[in-house]
Amino acid sequence: MSSDNKGQTPALPTDPQLQRRRTMTRLAASGLLIAAGAGAYWFLVGQWWAATDNAYVGGNIVQITPQVTGTVVGVLVDDTDLVAAGQPLVRLDPADTQVQLELAEANLAEAVRTVRGLYASDQESHAVIEQRSADMERARFEVDRTEAELQQAQAEYQRREALFAKKFIAKETLQSARTALDSAVAQRDSARAAIGQAEAAIRQAREQQTGTRVLVDNTSLETHPRVAAAAAQVKDAYLALARTSIVAPIGGYVAKRSVQLGERVAPGTAMLAVIPLDQLWVDANFKETELENVRIGQEVTLRSDLYGGDVSYRGQVVGLAPGTGGAFALLPAQNATGNWIKIVQRVAVRIALDPAPLAAHPLRIGLSMRVSVDTHVRDGATLATRPRSDPAYATSVFEAQAQAADSLIAHIIDANRQDDRRS
User: Fold this and answer.
1) CA distances from 11 to 8, 17, 20 (A)
2) In angstroms, what CA-CA distances link 366 with 55, 325, 341?
3) Which end of the chain has the least Cβ crowding within 10 Å, N or C?
4) Are the beta carbons of 229 and 392 closer than 8 angstroms?
């Protein structure tokens, strides 16, 4: 063995402390490199982005409820069906509302004819006043005529009385003149009485005209209170009949159908929902410590767990909630207690989605999203600075029902209008 060991250098013993120092040096260097890399990443990239995976797709869930009471006789759609705005969804039995509409139409026609009679009475009272005024003129003319005849009779009587005093005429001739004078006085008094009767007749006619005119004054046939009230009943009955066909106020997909055939429903009963998948947004719940640089108008990149990382969406921050999720919870936290524990709160950030990627890759309400907000532009507001000028959502599908009701009312009034179309 001694010959085998000749020419070899003996191995130095390993120092455990030296090995430990080398390991610690390597670990420290690695830590410094990691810290430097993290610092560089935060300085170059991280500080300009706010990200979270606590984000979910939100959207409108339009509850379909009846506006009138009725029995369901038709369910025209089912869950997952696509419907267009204005498309019928559920039909109610229209028998009762049809009867009410027919009764309201008859009442409107009767009201129009009654008001026509009021206008005719007003015209008739005007004609009566004119006739009484003409009678007054005739009575005045008669008074003037009898006054002239009376003066003539008085002069004749005085002349004959002078002749009788001189014995030129007989007593019978004087008596004849006296009789003529008395007759002229009686005719004059009768003419004066006729004027009083004519004045009384004119006052009575004017009172009658006032009674009829107050019922039609400052109105037309269409705006008369009786016609307007009957027209309102027709419109109400027509709308009730039209609402037995329950239509979609907006296009979308049917969900949560609970209505059944034969069911008796009342206004406000939830029957189904329509979800417009082209009107979605994302509510991203950021920690309160992450919102320092988030502003309205900043660009957002989003990815959905449904499609994975290969599909990305574009969006924009449109608003930050005015309170934390805990403040809006059904049971808010009671922090003023003795066993308080601080919990980082989260604030919802509303993100509007670009419609083009959304149309190519549809999302569903409630899906999880990963959100990255680009915070390079930090001069925006954190809360809305002006009220909304236009409605956020609106529908016009019900306007046609009111327009059809107005057309029906105009047709009924026109059919029962008098020939000269007085208005």
Assistant:
1) 9, 18, 20
2) 9, 16, 30
3) N
4) no
Q: Are 418 and 118 in contact (CB under 8 A)?
A: no
Report the alpha-carbon distance of residue 371 to residue 300 in Å, rounded. Answer: 7
φ, ψ of residue 90 in degrees (nearest 5): -140, 145
Rounded to an integer, what distance in angstroms lies between the CA atom of residue 241 and that of residue 401? 10
Tell me whether residue 91 is exposed, middle or buried, using C-beta atoms within 10 angstroms of its C-beta: 0 to 12, 13 to 18, 19 or more: middle
Task: Report which residue type is found at 229.
Answer: A
CA distances for 202 relative to 128, 219, 230, angstroms: 8, 25, 36
Mean pLDDT (whole number) for 347-372: 94
244: its two tokens: 């037995």
Residue range 219-248: mean pLDDT, rounded: 91
Long-range contacts: 225-228, Cβ < 8 Å, 24+? 226/111, 226/114, 226/115, 227/108, 227/111, 227/112, 227/115, 227/413
109, 231 contact by CB (below 8 A): no
Residues 400 and 198: beta-carbon distance below 8 Å: no
As a whole number of angstroms, the distance between CA 64 and CA 43 comes to 52
Whether the Cβ atoms of residue 373 and residue 49 lie closer than 8 Å to each other = yes
The predicted-structure confidence for 378-420, as pLDDT tens digits, reads as follows 888 888 888 988 898 899 999 999 999 999 999 999 998 865 4
Q: What percent of the chain has pLDDT over 90?
A: 45
- Average pLDDT estimate for 243-249: 96
- With a threshold of 0.85, does the pTM exceed it? no
Query: Which residue stretches of 62-170 are H helix?
Result: 95-165
User: With contact defined as beta carbons under 8 Å apart, do 154 and 216 qualify?
Assistant: no
Q: Is the pLDDT of residue 138 over 80?
A: no
Helix (H) or strand (E) holding 231: helix 225-242
Inter-residue contact 318 to 299 (CB < 8 Å)? no
Contact status, residue 250 vs residue 20, Cβ threshold 8 Å: no
How distant, in Å, are the alpha carbons of 9, 10, 18 from that of 14?
15, 13, 8
Contacts of 27 (CB under 8 A, 6+ apart): none
Taking alpha carbons only, the member of 278, 245, 189, 251 closest to residue 68 is 245
Q: Which amino acid is at 301?
A: T
Q: Which helix (H) or strand (E) holds 255?
A: strand 252-255
Token pair listed for 303: 């990815």
Strand-pairing partners, residue 91, are 74, 245
Binning pLDDT at 50, 70 and 90, where does residue 172 land? confident
Q: Specify which residues 395 forms β-bridges with.
A: none
